[in-house]
Design brief:
- The protein folds into 6 domains: 210 residues, 3-Layer(aba) Sandwich (Rossmann fold); 122 residues, Methionyl-trna Synthetase, domain 2 (Beta Complex), CATH 2.170.220.10; 154 residues, Valyl/Leucyl/Isoleucyl-tRNA synthetase, editing domain (Isoleucyl-tRNA Synthetase, domain 2, Alpha-Beta Complex), CATH 3.90.740; 149 residues, Isoleucyl-tRNA Synthetase, Domain 1 (Orthogonal Bundle); 85 residues, hypothetical protein PF0899 fold, CATH 3.30.2320; 63 residues, Helix Hairpins.
- Helix 3 packs across helix 4, helix 19 packs parallel to helix 21 and helix 19 crosses helix 23.
- By secondary structure, the protein is of the alpha/beta class.
- It starts with 12 loop residues before the first helix and ends with a helix.
- The strands form 10 sheets. Strands 7, 8, 9, 10, 11, 12 and 13 form a 7-stranded mixed sheet that branches. A 4-stranded antiparallel sheet has the order 6-5-14-16. It has a 4-stranded mixed sheet with strand order 29-28-31-30, covered by helices on one side.
- The protein has 27 helices and 31 strands.
């Protein structure tokens, strides 16, 4: 045995990871085996490892490692997402710190800085995942903006445009003033925001009367183009049909329109209509032909179209306009108001609804096969509850705004013509050819065309991920896409079910005619032990690398697995990492114990050892079958817990104690070999969960060839467990535990002159008498016909057992102890009886309370009877 005396995970983990890499044990190539494929949810190139990544990648690694060990050709493809908004923000901040403004650079100059940043800082998270033990095929690492992926994205854009699914137009979009780009609906997070409801006075033109309008955004009055009331609202019957009102402060008159869209019960029942800055107002504007006045610049400041507040930030204007309205006598009142406000998922600022020229993808037709695939379980969701969430979104899907006003990303392959219009093409040369054909001008030069300034939404790259990682867009019939696609499992968080999961399914059916994966396992959010979502702001999110450094990667993985049930939030407590390390220590010490046994080749196997080995073999078969069932249903945490208990309780707590030889005594060869065989099987079963520790011990268990690894050994398969045998052994275990309890309660020494008497019946496990005798440390087990008066008794199922106590205890001390207990329980019973004798209490107290008191009475009476019986036995 070469392993160290003490389990120190930090001393073994990096060495084994290097070993796996050097021997290319993570690498996969198409062959005759059944493939098993997972594509990593590509982390942002700006990202750093956090607790959510720890959970997600631990689960993926468990699935991949298990697949390898079940004989499949496992391929886990890693990669990164270029994260347009987040990365551009990082680069802009870096440049600003160096005294360089983005606006002073050309697009090409900025992109040179962005690529340099990516090479220097990007991909940190992938390097960090190695510390966790992630068995990704690093030779396959891809990036959503590398050449192959970029060409794939451009090809798909052109194809969808030619199919009529992509169009360009002015629409109301979600505008992020911080990133200065449009966002899709899915990138907007709504949360309750405390603000005010402002009641403004709109004077009716040609009259002294006023219409009071309630709004949460008084700064948008600069863009008002109508006032709307419900035609059924009698409060406004006095308004002429052609009435116009004066916009407060602005002085412009606008028409009064009537539409049942207005909620009579909200505010005053009168609505200001600002088509350029509210999606519902925009629809009213289209319906009634209202003009749209955009009053904001891209950065959220007021523009100079109206002449008021130009250059001032929108929320500062809100504060100032309240004062100005009040000073002008145009503010009726304000009152506190809480409403749902949309915030940018990327930058955290309040989004601004804005009319903008953008590119859109029609989604309705794409959604149909993708909806059926999930609802008919062609693609299975775990847990199933997310099917309804998915269906609701897919059935109410809106067109996807796919353009972003950024420089970092795939530039939209559209070229605008000098005379108006545009062409869409995969390359500049093809664009020029199309432009000449469209204009009829053969002298047209490429320099006269202007490529669209926008880039594509980052998700327009990642929705192709399961296809593009195998180059299936550019080369749809290549060997790898045919072998590895569709992939098997996707492990992801439910918060990107719309961003990514749904869109990948749509892309799969559009470009491969089949599903992109078979199963989707949704993880929960990682929360602290108080139930709070982990965040930097709260300071409750530990650095995973610090935890790995302290407890080891295996300890960290165990912590994740102990608390991770599909779809449920993970309540993380650092104590779980300690529990994980302690489990590793348990395995380590058990291995050292077995390794220290001396074998006597001539020693016959005892009946105790034979029975114990036979029992554990069936017990392990039972648990391994349960583990297979758990994996089939993606109960990964439950599978680990079953193995955890099998090792800790059954193997270490029972089997090793059952067969352990006496101090300095040898063990027989059959038992020793069986125990080592069990150890080998347990290490292999535990390997997907705890890869480093299991590799270290497995390598030591027997001589290994260079390059061998536990990670490619076969997973132990369950045999047929003998349920009747296991049930009989459990009866023996209960008897052993009961004897141990009597020793503890009666303070009996752990000596072998204790006897156990039994009135045997069909539930007495006579075949396990050797086991009972050894584990209960008994001198003998005897069959009797009746109870010994001085014995302490217990029943297992229907079998009566007795431990004779004559001469084993201090009778006088025991009598005093029992007398004290009797006094206590008699007093307790009297207080309970007093309550139950009170008719008022019995009739008025809740039924559960009364029932609880009656249960206390029954328990006290039983205890008193037992104590009196024990006192009578003592004489």
């Amino acid at each position: 045995m070469k392993i160290a005396d003490k389990y120190v995970p930090q001393q073994i983990e990096s060495g084994w990871y290097d070993y796996w890499i050097e021997n290319r044990l993570f690498h996969s190539e198409p062959d005759a085996r059944e493939p098993y494929t997972i594509v990593i949810p590509p982390p942002n190139v700006t990202g750093m490892l956090h607790m959510g990544h720890m959970l997600n990648n631990t689960l993926q690694d468990v699935l991949v490692r298990r697949a390898r060990m079940t004989g499949r050709n496992a391929c886990w493809v890693p990669g990164m997402d270029h994260a347009s908004i987040a990365t551009e923000a990082k680069v802009v901040a870096k440049l600003r710190a160096e005294g360089i403004e983005k606006s002073s650079l050309t697009r090409e100059e900025f992109l040179r800085h962005a690529w340099a940043w990516k090479e220097q800082y990007g991909g940190m998270i992938l390097r960090q995942l190695r510390k966790l033990g992630a068995s990704c095929d690093w030779e396959r690492t891809v990036f959503t903006m590398d050449d192959a992926r970029t060409q794939s994205v451009i090809k798909v854009f052109c194809d969808l445009y030619e199919k009529g699914k992509i169009y360009r137009g002015v629409r109301m979009v979600n505008w992020d003033p911080a990133a200065q780009t449009a966002l899709s609906d899915e990138e907007v997070v709504f949360r309750e925001t405390h603000g005010k409801l402002y009641y403004l006075r709109y004077r009716v033109e040609g009259s002294d009367r006023q219409v009071i309008v309630a709004t949460t955004r008084p700064e948008t009055i600069l863009g008002d183009t109508a006032l709307c009331v419900n035609p059924d609202d009698e409060r406004y019957a006095w308004l002429p049909q052609d009435a116009r009102v004066v916009v407060p402060l602005v002085g412009r008159t606008i028409p009064v329109i009537r539409d049942r869209y207005v909620d009579i019960a909200f505010g005053t029942g009168a609505l200001k209509v600002t088509p350029a800055h509210d999606v519902n107002d925009y629809m009213l504007g289209e319906k009634y032909g209202l003009p749209s006045i955009d009053v904001f610049n891209d950065d959220g400041t007021v523009n100079d179209r109206v002449g008021l507040y130009a250059g001032q930030e929108r929320f500062e204007v809100r504060k100032r306009i309240e004062k100005d309205l009040d000073a002008a006598g145009l503010l009726e009142k304000t009152e506190p108001y809480t409403n749902n406000v949309g915030y940018s998922e990327r930058t955290g600022v309040a989004i601004e609804p804005k009319l903008s020229m953008q590119w859109f993808l029609r989604m309705e037709e794409l959604a149909e096969p993708a909806t059926r695939a999930v609802m008919e379980d062609t693609i299975r969701f775990f847990p199933e509850k997310y099917k309804n969430t998915y269906r609701h979104w897919m059935e109410n899907i809106k067109d996807w705004c796919i353009s972003r006003q950024l420089w970092w990303g795939q530039r939209i392959p559209a070229w605008h013509l000098p005379s108006g219009g545009f062409v869409v093409a995969e390359t500049p040369a093809e664009a020029l050819e199309k432009a000449r054909a469209k204009t009829g001008d053969e002298s047209l030069r490429l320099e006269e065309l202007r490529q669209d300034e926008d880039v594509l939404d980052t998700w327009f790259s990642s929705w192709l991920w399961p296809i593009s990682v195998f180059d299936g867009i550019r080369r749809p019939d290549n060997e790898e896409i045919r072998y590895y696609y569709p992939t098997n499992d996707l492990v992801t968080a439910p918060d990107i079910i719309f961003f990514w999961v749904a869109r990948m399914i749509m892309a799969g059916y559009e470009y491969r005619g089949e599903k992109p994966f078979s199963n989707v396992y949704f993880t929960g959010l990682v929360r602290d032990k108080l139930g709070r979502k982990m965040s930097k702001q709260l300071g409750n999110s530990p650095d995973p690398l610090d935890l790995i450094a302290q407890y080891g990667a295996d300890g960290m993985r165990v912590a994740m697995l102990l608390s991770a049930t599909a779809g449920n939030d993970v309540m993380f407590d650092e104590a779980l990492c300690e529990q994980g390390r302690n489990f590793g220590n348990k395995i380590w010490n058990a291995y050292r114990l077995v390794g220290g046994w001396e074998v006597d080749e001539n020693l016959a196997q005892s009946e105790n050892n034979r029975l114990s080995v036979e029992w554990f073999r069936h017990r392990m078969d039972e648990v391994l079958a349960r583990v297979e069932s758990d994996f089939d249903s993606y109960r990964i945490s439950e599978a680990f817990m079953a193995l955890y208990k099998l090792f800790w309780d059954d193997f270490s707590g029972w089997l090793l104690e059952l067969v352990k030889p006496a101090y300095r005594a040898p063990i027989d060869r059959p038992t020793f070999d069986a125990v080592r065989g069990f150890f080998d099987a347990l290490l292999r079963a535990l390997h997907p969960f705890m890869p480093f520790l299991t590799e270290e011990l497995w390598q030591d268990l027997a001589p290994r060839k260079a390059g061998e690894s536990i990670m490619v050994q076969p997973m132990p398969r369950p045999g047929e467990a003998d349920r009747a045998l296991l049930a009989r052994f459990d009866l023996a275990r209960e008897a052993i535990s009961a004897v141990r309890n009597i020793r503890k309660q009666r303070n009996l020494p752990q000596r072998e002159n204790l006897r156990l008497e039994v009135i045997a019946d069909e539930n007495y496990p006579a075949e396990y008498e050797p086991v009972i005798r050894k584990m209960a440390n008994l001198e003998a087990v005897e069959r009797v016909a009746q109870k010994d008066a001085s014995a302490a008794g217990f029943i297992v199922k229907t079998t009566q057992y007795f431990v004779p106590l004559a001469g084993m205890i201090d009778a006088e001390a025991e009598r005093r102890k029992l007398a004290d207990e009797l006094t206590y329980y008699e007093g307790f019973l009297a207080s309970v009886m007093k309550k139950l004798a009170n008719e008022r209490f019995v009739q008025s107290a809740p039924a559960k309370v009364v029932e609880n008191e009656r249960a206390k009475r029954a328990d006290a009476e039983a205890r008193i009877a037992a104590i009196r019986e024990q006192l009578a036995a003592l004489g």
